[in-house]
Amino acid sequence: MPDHHHEGLRMNYFFLVSRRICAVSPSTPLKLLTIMGLLINLLLGGGIASAADWCGTLQRERGPYDYTNPAHTSRYLRLVEAHHFTEDVRTLRRGASSYLIGDLEYTLNWFPNHHAALDTLTRLALREGTPRPRGSRVEITCRFKWARDVNPSDAMVRVIHANYLMRTGDQAAAKEQLVKASELDSENPEAHYNMGLLFYRLSEYERALSHAKEAYSAGYPLPGLRNLLEGRGYALGQ
């Protein structure tokens, strides 16, 4: 189904840029004209560019590092978290060394797939009602793209993304992320628990039950999913 809202935005930008170009003088620098021409080409070239197109890659002098790789976390994680991902930041009370978004983005610049920091960023975005929280340099879509770049096999990144998409109302995209997560890691109890919760919210109770059984058989401690399913008549047994 076409996204008429974004289509309208594209057309509005087209007319705005067209009027600006029609008004340029002969002295307008060639570089500026080239940029404006590329913009029009993008707007007229069919659909909105994907995250891979407009997010680019996260480049740093050091890193970025993989949150699931012990060789990476043993060197830098403790220092980064001690100064930038404190309990105040995790609970969205206040920043540690700067503004809240500054500490979150610092943590994610070092470890793009830092599970707790990614989840905290989604909660901040949801609290502010925008995919780009105040002061952020990019939209949250780029953060998930960079998290996948640093470790394409990290299933929890998919689960966190799915949870965010579900809470924004994009159930189809959330389900897509869940399917990919289950393909990546069929034995992760936390992934199974979260996937069970999200399938429950999608009213796919049989699939939620299947993931719940996997999570609880592996000793997952939280009873929330069990209680939800039993309330719907789906017993997990002992």
Commentary on this structure:
With 238 residues, this protein is mostly helical. The protein folds into 2 domains: 4-48; 70-231, Tetratricopeptide repeat domain (Serine Threonine Protein Phosphatase 5, Tetratricopeptide repeat), CATH 1.25.40.10. It has helices at 4-22, 30-44, 51-54, 70-84, 87-90, 100-110, 115-128, 140-150, 155-167, 171-184, 189-201, 205-217, 224-231. Helix 9 (155-167) runs antiparallel to helix 10. The N and C termini lie far apart (44 Å).
Main attributes of the structure:
mainly alpha; 65% helix; disordered N terminus; 238 residues; Serine Threonine Protein Phosphatase 5, Tetratricopeptide repeat; globular; 13 helices
Number of strands: 0
Q: Distance between the terminal alpha carbons, to the nearest Å?
A: 44 Å
Low-confidence stretches: 1-48
**What is the CATH class name of the largest domain?**
Mainly Alpha
Write the SSE topology.
Elements: H1 4-22, H2 30-44, H3 51-54, H4 70-84, H5 87-90, H6 100-110, H7 115-128, H8 140-150, H9 155-167, H10 171-184, H11 189-201, H12 205-217, H13 224-231
Helix pairs in contact: 1-2, 4-6, 6-7, 7-9, 9-10, 9-11, 10-11, 11-12
Short description:
The chain is mostly helical and 238 residues long. It contains 13 helices and no strands.
